[in-house]
Amino acid sequence: MPHPEPDSKTVVVSGGTDGMGRAVVLGRLARGDRVIAIGSTPAKGSALAAEAAQVAPADRFAFVQADLSSLAAVRDVVSRLSAYPAIDALVLCANRQNQRRIVTAEGLEASFALYYLSRYLLGNGLSDQLNAAVNPVIINVSAPGTKVGTVNFDDLQSERKYSPIRVQAACCRANDLLGAAYGEHPTSKAHYVMYHPGFTATTGGIEQMKQPVKSVVRVLAKLFAKPVDKAVAPVIGWIDAPPAATLTANDRGKTLDTSILKTFDSANAERLSSETRRIVESVLGPGEW
Predict the structure, then answer these.
(1) Fewer C-beta within 10 Å: the chain N or C terminus?
(2) Residue 7's pLDDT band (boundaries 50, 70, 90)?
(3) pTM for this predicted structure
């Protein structure tokens, strides 16, 4: 494995072939970092590799193909990334909006598995590599602190009533609790940042929408959405200089007080952690999850 430049960082980006994830990959490569992009589509990985070659030597970019809605695939990714002695930043962007309920081969609701469980597993599974970095950071791109959605502990897998908007909102709230649990009981020395960029001009989730909603969202994005380079600017900055706090929640540039937000309730965070370990162990067996 080639050695990075003396002042460079090693950055891992889930959902790294699209939208904000792709922008972070290219932005950090341009700064001299080694970047590993995780994505589910080989063709997008090849296209990103070609683009990356325009801004950085080939040995500073790697694409890892994986469907992160599979917990076994996430475990394999963690195993592959253990070859890196240290990881300075883990940026969690992978998400997909499904218009109908999809159950994975492991028996999990796909959005919950991708948007929440993969982030839980990557953050925990890469703790050794994060601990080996000087000033590591985990950046969870979600929607912290918003009042839309709730974690339904009686129906975490959305079996009884499914809608893509409801499920996406519930996963956002689950990520809030993931951040809250990390703030209470960090699994590494990494600083944890929850980040809501706001309405951003990406295609993430649009392709899965039905018409005429897809067309309406495209028009709104052109008129009102924040440019991707502006949306990722804070992420690029936090990789260089993580916030001092163990847990930071940022909503469109405003730092939130997680101690007063119900979506970061510590009791619910502990309850979800327990449920998450049970779900993960039911699929992967006992382990350091």
Answers:
(1) N
(2) confident
(3) 0.91
State how beta strands 247-251 and 89-92 pair.
unpaired
Q: What is the mean pLDDT of the chain?
A: 91
| Cα–Cα distance for residue pair 198/231, rounded to 1 Å | 8
pLDDT in tens, 240-286: 999 999 999 999 999 999 999 999 999 999 999 999 999 999 999 99
Handedness of CA 269, 271, 273, 276 (dihedral sign): negative
Q: What's the rounded Cα separation, in Å, for the pair 11 and 13?
A: 7
> Which parts of the chain are beta strand (E)?
10-14, 34-39, 61-65, 89-92, 137-141, 191-196, 247-251, 254-256
DSSP string over 126-164: THHHHHTSSS-EEEEES-TT-SS----TT-TT--S---H
Q: Which two tokens stand for residue 120?
A: 């839980």
Interstrand relation of 89-92 and 61-65 (parallel, antiparallel or unpaired): unpaired
Neighbouring CB atoms inside 10 A of 241's CB total 10
